[in-house]
Amino acid sequence: MNRLYDLVYEDDQIIIVNKFSGVPVIPGRTSEMDRSLKYALKSKYGEIFIVHRIDEETSGLVIMAKDADTHRSLNTMFQNREIQKKYLLLINGIPYPEEGTIELPLKKLNNQNKSIVHKEGKEAKTTYKVLEKFKNICFCEAEIHTGRHHQIRVHFNAINFPLLVDPIYGKSEFFLSEIKSKRYNKGKEEIEKPIMNRLSLHAYSLSFVHPTTKNKCSFIAEIPKDFRASLNQLRKNNV
């Protein structure tokens, strides 16, 4: 079985991993059991408790508990919004102001892997900050203060700044020719390969007080290779 994650931290109570894009936290209807993060960790550690999830297409940090007491404590911390979660993302366009808050209620559609902004939806709050601007794309940091289904993806789409790559709410690939324009040349028989063909969203930072030791913990997952390659091309060609 191919690697599904990198281990970031482990102690007697918790495990923190950097999950790869395309790996479900738990197997869904169309996911194979042995391709899920839970299965991989359970095979190694035995009983594992799911504390929270990130989308299958999203890469980044996920916390797992090794025992029921730690699981309950971490769940309570999430419910009380005592765990800080930050994401890095590439979006189409440049929002103004460049630092702000999106508060739009979200509703998950029945029997669909999709959410929409809806007046009868649940409260959802996302704060963001532009980190780097290019011609018509920007690199942002976002923090979610609620944990709704596809929250960041739907919030940015709702304010007309969709993620650069999002197979559900936008386009499924990002090509170099999109930013090099007429300067990009390829042979007549050559098929251009995308720079990025996964969701341009990465859960890069987690901060919380350890439920047992009470120490302040902060963890960071470096930007994945394909995400980094897209950023490098934007810096090189889209200034």
Explain what you see.
- The chain is α+β, with helices and mostly antiparallel strands and 239 residues long.
- The chain has helices spanning 37-45, 68-79, 151-158, 177-180, 225-237; strands at residues 5-10, 14-19, 49-50, 59-65, 84-92, 99-103, 106-108, 115-117, 125-133, 137-144, 201-209, 216-220.
- It is globular, with a radius of gyration of 19 Å.
- The relative contact order is 0.17.
- The model has no long low-confidence stretch (mean pLDDT 92).
Low-confidence stretches: none
Structural class by helix and strand composition:
alpha+beta
CATH architecture: 2-Layer Sandwich
Query: How many distinct domains?
Result: 1
Helix content: 10-25%
List keywords for this structure.
239 residues; alpha+beta; Pseudouridine synthase; 10-stranded mixed β-sheet; two-stranded antiparallel ribbon; 12 strands
Q: How is the secondary structure organized here?
A:
Elements: E1 5-10, E2 14-19, H1 37-45, E3 49-50, E4 59-65, H2 68-79, E5 84-92, E6 99-103, E7 106-108, E8 115-117, E9 125-133, E10 137-144, H3 151-158, H4 177-180, E11 201-209, E12 216-220, H5 225-237
